[in-house]
Amino acid sequence: MKILVGYDGSAPSKEALKLATKHAVAFGGTVDVVTSMEKGTANQRQDMEKALLALEAVKSLFVEKNIACKTHLLIRGVSPGEDLIEFAQENKIDEIIIGVRRRSKVGKLLMGSTAQFVILESSCPVVSVK
């Protein structure tokens, strides 16, 4: 089983990592942890470096538990939701685990929701955690 976790360093995404660990152990799966950034300009270099360091720390958590894990920093010029869906399709992912944040309806309308997009557009099962 190939499991994809959308990771942005938030508390909900850390909960998604915990669930991915359980699923990987239970189903003998591998885990791909993905952080998506829309742009990768020179001004955002520090953010990219922080994201890479965070992904390496996450990978070590899986390695400690003998779970095969790959990390990916995607900068492809699309929204994080689109990035996760495209990555899942390209890599034949069996399950996506994503954290959700509480937002008001107006907040979702104005800012959008990565989790909502992934849930609605994914061709594989999506598990959301908070």
Which short descriptors sum up this protein?
130 residues; alpha/beta; Rossmann fold; 5 strands
Describe the structure.
The protein is of the alpha/beta class. It has a single domain, classed as HUPs (Rossmann fold, 3-Layer(aba) Sandwich), CATH 3.40.50. Helices cover 48% and strands 21% of the residues. It contains 5 helices and 5 strands. Helix 2 links the parallel strand 2 (30-36) and strand 3 (69-74). It is globular.
Please give a quick description of this structure.
The protein is α/β, with parallel strands linked by helices and 130 residues long. Helix content is 48%, strand content 21%.
Overall average residue pLDDT: 90
CATH class: Alpha Beta
Q: Which shape, going by the Cα principal axes?
A: globular
Stretches where pLDDT falls below 50 for ≥5 residues? none
CATH superfamily, by name, is HUPs
Distance from first to last alpha carbon: 23 Å
Count of alpha/pi helices: 5
Major sheet description: 5 strands, parallel
Number of E-type strands: 5
Summing up helix and strand content along with how strands pair, one would put the structural category as alpha/beta
Beta percentage is 15-25%
SSE ordering:
EHEHEHEHHE
Strand arrangement within the widest β-sheet reads: 3-2-1-4-5
Total number of domains? 1
CATH architecture: 3-Layer(aba) Sandwich
* CATH T-level topology: Rossmann fold
Radius of gyration: 14 Å
| Helical proportion, percent range | 40-55%
